[in-house]
Design a protein that fits this description.
Blueprint lengths: L7 H22 L134 H4 L32 H5 L12 E14 L4 E15 L8 E7 L5 E10 L5 E5 L23 H4 L8 E8 L6 E9 L22 E12 L14 E15 L4 E14 L1 E12 L4 E15 L3 E12 L11 H4 L3 E14 L3 E18 L2 E19 L1
Antiparallel strand pairs: 1-2, 1-16, 2-3, 3-4, 4-5, 5-6, 6-7, 7-8, 8-9, 9-10, 10-11, 11-12, 12-13, 13-14, 14-15, 15-16
């Protein structure tokens, strides 16, 4: 029994060309981001700054208990109110209306109805626009000599009430800390002088949960509903296609640690992912999780974080596996965190990728599965990490990163070494992603390769993003065909796919409407009278998707 395939020289040529194009082509362009499934939502609560620092003049100092003095700006009797706000001062001459207008910050915060119109301070319409009467939503930020962002800035110097994407990556911020992992490692990953929750990206990026004022445990939801029309079957369907629930928090007594529990409500509700991470020293970490030790960025995903909504099946099917448990070590190689490493060891057969508990033996094959590998991440220009979202919401600073990894996998029927190369390029309104995966199957003798190229263009800032991708999965026939094709082998068929999408941001980058078209063609082999007969199946569908995250 053989499979439809191409020559091994074609595979190697494709693999080499994909690696070259994913790097050199992107470099030529350089002259001008996410549940493996590590999820992008983690919540280690470290030191959490407040929304804004309070001036010493806004909250008066409290003196020891004593009689209230009504004109010194001090809560003398310790009852939490001071001067004319204290009932003890109602009859004091300093607290009588003088008939003048409520037209200054001082007069709008003195607890006196100065113009005797029946409303006091910020309740008076004349106080509209005064800084003391603005809430955290509309209060303007405070400027500093550094422009409010970067080394020397403080929580009170940044306009945290502007649109988050307007402040990230500008005026001294290097836009390199925008994930819960990097915002909880205790180092300045992007070398802009601000560490973890002091960094603007950690404070403002909506995908970062650890730096928001909250308790030690947070709850998060990603929801997606979609309507689909299948052009081949001429059928349509509407469904609530995904609800993912996450519990995030800090591991007690371990600073900068965190855990994540992810629950997916589908036809069979299940816990799909668990992660526990603790720091070691200097930004290095130890991680225990329920997912596979993966190399592909496509597995670092949530409903919210992929340019084409779902990962390309052909990039994962023949190369990644859903293991039962994995341990990982990682951290920076250099002081600026331009180069990072990660190494992993995983084993077991989860029923689903990253599932908690259960095994998957569809063919009655109980061979033990395991995987081990390592990856080097290189930030050549700017900073981009594997948990970042490639979705552009506002123009982005120049970024070029390359990841190179390798691993050895044993599946129920297969054993193979694999290599993976990925590159990410961002500049202004353009993002380009390239990935190449290749492996040599040892048991049956086969070369397999897959590549995927994605592009995103921000057509309208904060409103419209166009995206598209193209890729293939190629394989040579088995040199030593198995007597039976197991579950994994049956799904390894030659495939070509291209997709296009338009993302409309309905509310910030959290509520989106997506129109997605996909054209997928799979070449399989049927045996008829002992002869291999190739069969080409086509699938074309159009989806309208609403997705929301909070």
């Amino acid at each position: 029994m053989t499979r439809q395939g191409t020559s091994w020289t074609s595979i190697l040529t494709t693999l080499a060309f994909g690696v070259w194009s994913a790097t050199t082509t992107t470099v030529a362009l350089a002259a001008p981001p996410v549940d493996a499934q590590p999820v992008d939502d983690f919540d280690p609560p470290s030191i959490v700054p407040t929304d804004r620092a309070v001036d010493a003049t806004e909250v008066p100092p409290t003196a020891a208990s004593g009689p209230e003095i009504c004109d010194d700006g001090v809560d003398n009797d310790g009852d939490t109110v001071f001067d004319c706000g204290d009932n003890d001062c109602k009859a004091h001459p300093a607290c009588k209306p003088d008939g003048g207008p409520e037209d200054t910050a001082a007069r709008c915060a003195d607890w006196i109805d100065n113009d005797s119109d029946g409303v006091t301070d910020c309740d008076d319409d004349e106080c509209n626009g005064q800084d003391v009467c603005m809430g955290s939503w509309d209060r303007p930020g405070k400027a500093t000599a550094t422009g409010g962002v970067g080394p020397g800035a403080t929580a009170s110097s940044v306009d945290y009430n502007a649109a988050p994407a307007d402040l990230i990556g500008v005026r001294g911020d290097n836009d390199g800390e925008r994930s819960d992992q990097l915002c909880a490692d205790g180092i300045d990953n992007d070398n802009d002088g601000l560490i973890d929750c002091e960094d603007v990206g950690c404070r403002l990026d909506p995908s970062v949960t650890i730096c928001r004022p909250a308790g030690n445990i947070r709850f998060s939801v990603v929801a997606r509903t979609q309507g689909t029309y299948d052009f081949e079957e001429k059928k349509s369907n509407v469904e609530f296609s995904a609800i993912q629930l996450r519990a995030l928090g800090q591991i007690p007594y371990i600073q900068n640690s965190f855990f994540l529990l992810s629950f997916r409500a589908e036809k069979t509700p299940r816990m799909v992912f668990a992660m526990f991470q603790i720091p070691i020293k200097g930004g290095h970490y130890f991680n225990l999780n329920s997912g596979a030790g993966s190399l592909s960025l496509e597995l670092v995903r949530s409903v919210h974080k992929r340019l084409l909504v779902d990962p390309a099946f052909y990039m994962l099917n023949g190369f990644e596996q859903g293991n039962g448990a994995a341990i990982e070590f990682g951290g920076p190689i250099d002081k600026r965190a331009k180069f990072l490493y990660r190494a992993f060891l995983a084993g077991g057969s989860g029923r689903f990728a990253g599932n908690i508990g259960g095994t998957f033996f569809p063919d009655g094959n109980t061979n033990f599965t395991w995987s081990t590998g390592a990856q080097l991440w290189m930030n050549l220009i700017g900073y981009y990490n594997r948990f970042d979202s490639p979705l552009l919401y506002v123009p982005a600073p120049l970024t070029l990163s390359v990841a190179v990894g390798s691993k050895f996998d044993q599946r129920p029927q297969e054993r193979y070494p694999a290599v993976n190369v990925q590159t990410t390029f961002r500049y202004r309104r353009l993002v380009i992603l390239g990935e190449v995966y290749g492996k040599r199957e040892l048991n049956f003798g086969s070369w397999q390769a897959a590549y995927n190229a994605q592009i995103g263009v921000l057509a309208i800032k904060k409103r419209l993003l166009f995206a598209g991708d193209f890729g293939q999965y190629l394989t040579t026939p088995f040199e030593r065909p198995p007597t039976t094709l197991g579950y994994d082998l049956r799904r390894q068929n030659q495939e070509t796919q291209f997709r296009g999408a338009a993302h409309v941001y309905l509310w910030r980058e959290l509520f989106m409407l997506t129109l997605l078209y996909a054209d997928r063609r799979v070449l399989t082999t049927n045996i008829v009278d002992g002869v291999d007969m190739p069969v080409l199946s086509k699938n074309k569908d159009l989806r309208l998707i609403f997705q929301f995250r909070f």
